[in-house]
Amino acid sequence: MAHARTDLLADDIDAYLLAHEHKSMLRFITCGSVDDGKSTLIGRLLYDSKLVFEDHLAALEADSKKVGTQGGDIDFALLVDGLAAEREQGITIDVAYRFFSTERRKFVVADTPGHEQYTRNMVTGASTAELAVILIDARKGVLTQTRRHSYLVSLLGIRHIVLAINKLDLVDYSEEVFRRIEDAYQSFAKEIRLERIMTIPISALRGDNITEPSSNTPWYSGPTLIDHLESIEIADDTRSRPFRMPVQWVNRPNLDFRGFSGCIAGGTVRPGDRIRVLPSGLESTVSRIVTYDADLAEAVAGQSVTLTLADEIDLSRGDVVAAASRPPGVADQFEAHVIWMAEEELLPGRPYLLKIGTRTVAATIERPKYKVNVNTLEHTAARTLGLNEIGVCNIHLDRPIPFDSYRDNRDTGGFILVDRYTNNTVAAGLLNFALRRADNIHWQAVEVDKQARAAIKHQRPALIWFTGLSGSGKSTIANLVERELHHLGRHTYLLDGDNIRHGLNKDLGFTDVDRVENIRRTAETAKLLLDAGIIVLASFISPFRAERQMTRELLEEGEFVEVFVDCPLDVAETRDRKGLYAKARRGELVHFTGIDSPYEPPDSPEIHLDASGAASAEESAQQVISFITAAGIIGS
Questions:
Q1: How many CA atoms lie within 13 A of 218 on its CB side?
Q2: What's the distance, CA 341 to chain centroid?
Q3: Pick from 273, 265, 263: which is nearest to 297 by CA?
Q4: What's the rounded mean pLDDT across residues 588-607?
Q5: What's the Cα-to-Cα distance from 380 to each of 146, 327, 374, 377, rounded to whole Å?
Q6: What letter would DSSP give residue 365?
Q7: 3-state SS class at 540
Q8: Pairing state of beta strands 560-566 and 370-372?
Q9: What is the pLDDT of residues 308-322, one digit of tens each?
Q10: How many CA atoms lie within 13 A of 540 on its CB side?
Q11: What single string gives the DSSP state of each residue in 204-246?
C-alpha cells in the first residue's frame, strides 16, 4: 500500500515521480464526537503510509511516554495534535491538515475538532472536502456531537460518508454492537439526506481494518478504510455538472492575445463549445483552451486554464463563463444558510462584503428567519446569530451576481462574509435560492424627479448627519441650524434620534442589533426626503462607523455631510439633564453608549465641531451653515 519502497522507485525514479504526479487527489475530513479517535486514526494512516520520518518517530515515542494517553504505548494522535493546549488536554482545537499518499492516490485530510465551541473550525475543514469519515466510539454509540457533525457534513454538501465505528477492541470486536450502531446511524442519516454511506468496523489504535483486513472481525467482508478511500470515485460529481468558470484574470500579455483565466468550478469545456457570460448574458464560442504546456482539447472541473473566445466581448474579473445551454441564475436577493464564525454577533442591516467565487459585492443580511439547533435539528426564532450558530436569512446585494444553489455547485453557491472595517471573515454561507420578489419589484418611472423638486426650492438636497455622544449637544446645534435655514427660506426637516423612536422606530431597543436597524430605517427615510428636494438634518448618536458609511453610500456623491460633535465623556456626563449616564453607571441602564456600549468616532467627517465648551452652540451652528453655504447646498 505505501509507496516508500516500490520496484518502480528503485528502478526508475523519473517514471515513479511522473506516476506520482498524475495520481488523483482526494480531500477528506475526520469528524465526530470528542474522543472518538479522529486524531489517532490520521496518525495511524500516516504511520502505516511510512510517512513518519525516523526522528519524528523517535519524538513521537518520547512524547507518548510524556503526554500520551495510551499508558506509554505510541499515541498516534500526537502526530496531528500539534498545539500545546491540544496535547495538554487530549483534545483537538484547531483544524490540522495532513498529506499522505498510497500507490493509487494522494490524500489531504483535515482533522476537525469535536467540541461544539469549535464548530467554525470544523466548517472550515469541511468546506473543501469531498468525503467525510465520521467516527463513532463503539462503547458510546451515536451521540449528540455525532448528529451535529453529520448535519454539518450534509449541509456543506459532502455526499460521500465513511461511518467508521471505532474502538471495537474495547467491546471485544462485537458484531452485535457494530450492527446496532450502524442501524441507529442509518436511521438518523435518512432524516438529513445522507445516502452514500460505507460502514467499516475499525480500531484506529490497533490498526484493525485500516490498511489490512482484520482477523478480529471475520464477520466483516467489506473493504478496509484505505481500500475504500483509494477506490471511491469522486470526480464525476463535479464533471457531470454544467460548465462554470469564474474569471479570475483577464490575460492580455500583448496586443495579439486576450484570454480569460480561471479555475473550472464544474463541468467540462472544449473548443467550439457555445458559452454565455454572466451577468451580462453575452454569448460567444470557445476558440482555444490555453495552458502553460500546450493547448487542450478538453478541460474539466478542477483545472486552471485560459479560454480565448471567438468574439470580442466584455469580460472582467468576477464574471462567470458558463455553458450557454445551462447557464446559472442571476439575482441580487437570496435565501441562504449562514454559519456565523465571529465573536461579534451578526448585526442585521449592517453592510458586509460578500465574496463568492472571484467576485466581491456589498451585502446586507436581514433578521434571521430562524436558527437551527444543530443538536436537535429544531428551528428556533432568532433576532441575530452568535458564534458557531447557523441560521437561514435573506440577503440583499448591491448588484446582481451569477450563482447556482450550493446544493448544485459548492463553488458558485458558497460564499463568505467579511467585515468591511476589520477585513475579518465573519461568516460562511450557502445560497439556497433567489428570491422571486426581486423579479416582481421594479422602479416606477416618474416625470417630476429630485432635481425638479430641488430646483423649485432653490437648494440642493443634502443630509446633514450630526453624530456624537449623548449630551454632546447634537440636537441643540441641529435645531439651531434648522432655525437659521428656515429663516433663510430653505425647506428642511429635522430627524431627531429621540423623536423618531416615538413612531417609526418605537419597536426598537438599544442593543447593537436594534441600533443598526434604527439607523437603517432612518437612512431610508432621509433618502425619501432628499428625493423630495429637502435638506435633512439628522441628530443621532449613531455609534457605529459601518452604519454611517452605509448611509453615505445610500445617497448620491456629495449628499451626505457628516458632522462630528466631539465632546469628551466627562463633559457629556456633566450635561446629563435626563440622568441617563448616572443610571448607566449604576447598572440600571444597559447598552448605553460611552459606558457599556462603544462609540466609534468618525475617521474623516466633513465638519468637526469642538463641543467641549470652547465654542458656543450658536458658534458651532454657524460653522455648519458656513460649510453648507460654501458647498452650494443652500445656493444664493
A1: 1
A2: 8
A3: 273
A4: 89
A5: 21, 36, 11, 9
A6: E
A7: coil
A8: unpaired
A9: 999 999 889 999 999
A10: 31
A11: TTTTBTTTB--TT-TT--S--HHHHHHH---THHHHTSPPEEE
Report pLDDT digits (tens) over 166-212: 999 999 999 999 999 999 999 999 988 888 899 999 998 888 999 88
Q: 357-378, pLDDT tens digit by residue?
A: 999 999 999 999 999 988 788 8
Sequence-distant (6+) residues with CB within 8 A of 418 are: 352, 353, 354, 355, 424, 425, 426
What does the pLDDT average to over 574-578?
Answer: 82
- Annotation says 604 is catalytic: no
Cα distance between residue 475 and residue 567, in whole Å: 13
- DSSP summary character for residue 36: S
Cβ 346 vs Cβ 427: under 8 Å: yes
CB neighbourhood size of 579 (10 A): 11
Is residue 494's pLDDT more than 90?
yes
Which residues, listed in sequence order, are joined to residue 352 by a DSSP beta bridge? 363
Percent of the chain, pLDDT > 70?
86
pLDDT of residue 522: 94
510 CB burial (10 A radius; 0-12, 13-18, 19+): middle
3-state SS, 235-280, equals: CHHHHCCCCEEECCEEEEEECCEEEEEEECCECEECCCCEEEEECC
Partners of 137 in the beta sheet? 166
List, in order of start, the domains of the chain with CATH numbers: 7-234 (3.40.50.300), 238-323 (2.40.30.10), 329-437 (2.40.30.10), 450-630 (3.40.50.300)
* Among candidate residues 354, 337, 443, 349, the one with its CA nearest the CA of residue 397: 354
Q: Are strands 607-610 and 560-566 parallel, antiparallel or unpaired?
A: parallel
Torsion (CA) 499, 505, 506, 509 in degrees, nearest 10: -110
* Dist CA 318 CA 248 (whole Å): 6
- CA angle (416 as vertex; 385, 232 as ends), nearest 5: 110
Residue 286, beta-bridge partner list: 309
- Give the bridge partners for 536, in sequence order: 463, 493
Residue 226 and residue 205: Cα distance in Å, rounded?
15
Task: Tell me what pLDDT residue 84 has.
Answer: 39
138 and 209 in contact (C-beta within 8 Å)?
no
Pairing of strands 329-340, 390-403: antiparallel
Cis-peptide, bond into residue 279, ω within 30° of zero: yes
CA angle 92-94-99, nearest 5°?
Answer: 95
Question: Rounded to an integer, what distance in angstroms lies between the CA atom of residue 85 and that of residue 87?
Answer: 5
Q: Of 33, 49, 405, 542, which one is the catalytic site residue?
A: 542
The answer to whether the beta carbons of residues 318 and 279 sit under 8 Å apart is no
Q: State in Å, rounded, how far the first CA of the chain is from the last one.
A: 87
CA nearest neighbour of 630 among 486, 457, 460, 456: 460
**Cα separations (Å) of 360 from 159, 251, 357, 427?**
28, 20, 8, 14
Which residues, in sequence order, are bridge partners of residue 393? 336
Beta strand 196-201 with 390-403 is unpaired
